[in-house]
Sequence to fold (527 residues):
Amino acid sequence: MKKLKTVIQYECLTSFKYIWIFYAIQYACVALITLIVAISVGSTEQVGTNCLEINSLIYVGILGVLGFHEDFKMLIQNGFTRRYIFLATFSLFAFISAIMALVDTVVGNLLHALSENYFSMYGGIYGYGNVFANWVWLFCVYLFVCSLFYLGVLVINRMGKTVSLFLGVILAGIVLLLVALFRFVLSGEVLSRLGKLALNAMGFMGDGSINLLFPVLTFLLVTVLLGLGSYAVIRRTELRG
Amino acid sequence: MNAIQIENVTKKYGNVTALDNVSFSFEFGKIYGFLGRNGAGKSTLINLIANRIFTDEGRILIDGLPAQENMEVHEKIFCMSEADLYDTSLKIRDHFKWIDRFYDSFDREKAFRIAEQFHLDTGKKFKALSKGYQSIFKLTVALALHVPYVIFDEPVLGLDANHRELFYDLLLQDFESQERTIIIATHLIEEVANIIEEVVLIDRGKVLLQENVDALLEKGYCVSGLASEVDGYCQGKNVIGRDELGGLKLAYILGEKDPLPQNSRLQLSAMNLQKLFVKLTEKGGN
Fold:
């Protein structure tokens, strides 16, 4: 367990500083945009920088990809097993997601308090009533995105580029098939039930109330499934090149 | 058993058989030269031992423990790779810091001492180092790790003659101070010929020979002279290669050295390890 702790520390501490570089660049850009808009329009009401969390989503997506490319090589070189690498990588995802969700929650609520024109992603969907729920939701979303990209890059690495491209085409075909299925095959009642299920999964209940626990559980469930998929792939992943 | 045991290992890449039912051992306390031509299967076997890839058949044991996906062998083996697997954005001193935490047996002070001897700037990031200094960093780590089995895969790649000498000196000093198994996979055979005790020669996925270097050199020799006389001498012997120039012939023989017949104009001479390697592996090689 001592070695697992060390490898988790390695993953987290070597990625920690990059979060602040990312935020420094992001807020510098926002400040610059605000300044330009303020100078040219004379007010900051037109600044279209809602949903700053989308930038964080891109960042954690990149983290999911790099979580494999960089760290797998480094850790396998240092004698760690794939199980340890997987556990350390998911710990990193949880650590980064937790920190970024916290920063984005605080900033999102603060910006909304300063200017009612600003809406964070969570605030736009669920409102601003519960800061803790905001953090948990964002945490789950970030973790889900990391896991999705991690699984994707693991599959691409395992299958090779050509097979992965074919898989992508098949996946696109399935999406088109589903769209056709929804439009032409499934009955209105089935569609209505599926729609309700999706809304319930995201916390919007039939009686108009919002259940903040359901979206969290949904994202966690999907993340666990993605994690299990990632583990199944990484345990047979070989170092390439 | 204190050894790296390779038992009936087969590894295929598509239709290409990189290793074909290979079985042998690297025993504890010896310095091995692990030799083979490009594509012979050296790196594949090293990657299998280091748990970087998986066997299709067979298994590898380190001191009786499975090498595959087993943290119990973490403090037993280290493989210095030719490939760059380290985090390129970390500074060398930070690498030392983390490796010190990863391994109980890493001597960080020794690593800094070795780095100083090589004039390796530990304040630089890995990616900022030249190819030669990247090799120096990697071999510094391997030399400062006191694990029972260390594999060096092309350790002197990009190193100048002075640094290569320094590396071999440090390697021998290290071996004298602490008994362990050192496996050197290299193409610079003559450079390691005086260091290695045993040689494992691999060719086209099969082990051609595993033998003590002195015994091997004792068995390998050349006979030269007129072609007809050389052919006569070579009858019934294990001739591993021939060179011809006009009417003269040079035959490379592996086996017991028979005395030359009286009044013979033939000449016997010793064969060095590199020549032996070349002659053993040149048929059908790339």
Chain B touches chain A at residues 47, 50-54, 69-71, 73-74, 77-79, 81, 83, 85-87, 90, 98-99, 101-103 (CB under 8 Å). Chain B has a mean pLDDT of 92.
